[in-house]
Write a structure and sequence with these properties.
This protein is an all-alpha fold. It has helices at residues 9-39, 43-71, 73-93, 97-111, 113-126, 130-158, 163-170, 172-180, 204-233, 239-263, 269-289, 293-307, 310-320, 326-355, 357-360, 362-381. The chain starts with 8 loop residues before the first helix and ends in a 9-residue tail after the last helix.
């Protein structure tokens, strides 16, 4: 049975919202050194900015679906964007860590409504083709997120202040509203929109996929958080070169999601996931086990290609397991992301303090193997068919 994947203005708006959110979740790392110097913070206190954002994600994962049902998904989506913009203003004018950390918490707890709504909305609209939409949305989000550290560096060097990198993008919702304000609410539009179903218990299959989301996101953020330190400490790269090398992983993530968006139209989601995990494992083992900088960088790139499709494809399977309650399914998936971001990179860091970073990095290989086992198990339990797109 052939299906046509048609992008309309609603699709574009959903993509833009996710890209807007993705920019701010990735810009906090690059601006942390500037906040540390300006506010004279310790490394621990400076790191609390990102931790506060992650705690906000957890709160949305726990109760975001209640807020969405109370306000409606359409209003909640714009509230999330407005929350990010206002939080950014607070972050930019804050003169104490209490204010700047509080701004990051507000950004995560309100802004993450976007992360809870967009997958649900795209899944409702596209049904069996949701994996295509989610892959494309994450391609755009990855591209915008990869530009965050570049814009921070450009703003600091050429505009005289890193703040311009935040202030300029914080205005994006105003432009989006001007462009899309005359469009009908997606709730009224035919062919899908922002659902508001009654809550119910989620099935066991969903929670199996939920664990896979935790593990997959953990792999992504462990590599992003610690690969530069690994390259410097284990392989002897200069600190600046090691930090810039992380961009190889981010670029590969963007390319991998772009490729995955096409391949999911041909192969079943389970088969594509299994192939992606195998590519990720091969690339990661090369990165982890070699003593050659060139091979390690090549492995990092290959790992990024494989890791890229894990989140969009697994969340597609998870939401597909609960087609009559996508709001709660998407919100709980947000909880999975927050859990992974908040805990696993910290665990890896603690292990590195105890046994050294090279041995500690083995946890990433273990995570990938566990994701592989879960997908193999569910592939046998749940029939999966390729999406033939006309």
């Amino acid at each position: 049975m052939a299906h046509t994947f048609h992008r309309d203005r609603f699709t574009l708006l959903a993509y833009l919202f996710l890209a807007f959110y993705g920019y701010f979740i990735n810009v906090l790392g690059p601006i942390t050194p500037f906040l540390k110097d300006e506010l004279k913070l310790s490394y621990t206190v400076a790191g609390l900015h990102y931790t506060a954002f992650a705690v906000g994600i957890l709160l949305v994962g726990l109760g975001g679906h209640l807020v969405i049902r109370r306000l409606g998904s359409w209003r909640s989506l714009w509230a999330g964007a407005l929350g990010i913009s206002l939080s950014t203003v607070l972050l930019l004018i804050g003169k104490t860590p209490l204010i700047t950390i509080g701004a990051c918490f507000l950004m995560g707890s309100v802004g993450s409504l976007i992360l809870a709504i967009v997958p649900s909305a795209l899944s409702e609209k596209y049904g069996e083709l949701r994996a295509v939409a989610l892959s494309e949305a994450n391609v755009i989000a990855s591209a915008v997120a990869a530009g965050a550290p570049l814009l921070v560096g450009w703003s600091a060097r050429w505009a005289g202040s890193w703040r311009l990198a935040l202030a300029s993008v914080a205005l994006a919702p105003i432009l989006m509203y001007i462009i899309f304000r005359k469009d009908p609410s997606p709730v009224q539009a035919s062919g899908g929109g922002f659902p508001a179903q009654a809550g119910r218990s989620l099935p066991l299959l969903y929670w199996v996929y939920w664990v896979a989301i935790v593990l997959g996101v953990a792999v992504e953020f462990c590599i992003i958080s610690w690969s530069a330190n690994y390259l410097e400490t284990v392989l002897g790269m200069l600190r600046a070169d090691a930090a810039q090398s992380v961009s190889l992983f981010l670029v590969a993530m963007m390319l991998g999601r772009l490729l995955g968006g096409h391949l999911v139209r041909i192969f079943s989601i389970h088969k594509l996931l299994i192939a992606s995990i195998l590519v990720a494992i091969a690339g990661y083992l090369l990165f982890w086990l070699t003593d050659s900088i060139s091979l390690a960088l090549g492995g990092l790139f290959v790992a990024g290609l494989g890791v890229a499709s894990l989140y969009p494809l697994i969340i597609s399977l998870a939401i597909g397991a609960v087609p009559d309650d996508t709001v709660q399914a998407s919100a709980r998936a947000t909880l999975a992301s927050g859990t992974a971001i908040l805990t696993l990179p910290l665990i890896l860091g603690r292990l590195a303090d105890s046994v050294g970073i090279r041995l500690a990095f083995g946890i990433v290989a273990l995570l990938l193997v566990c994701v592989f086992a879960i997908i193999q198990f569910t592939a046998r339990a749940v029939p999966a068919h390729p999406l033939v797109v006309g």
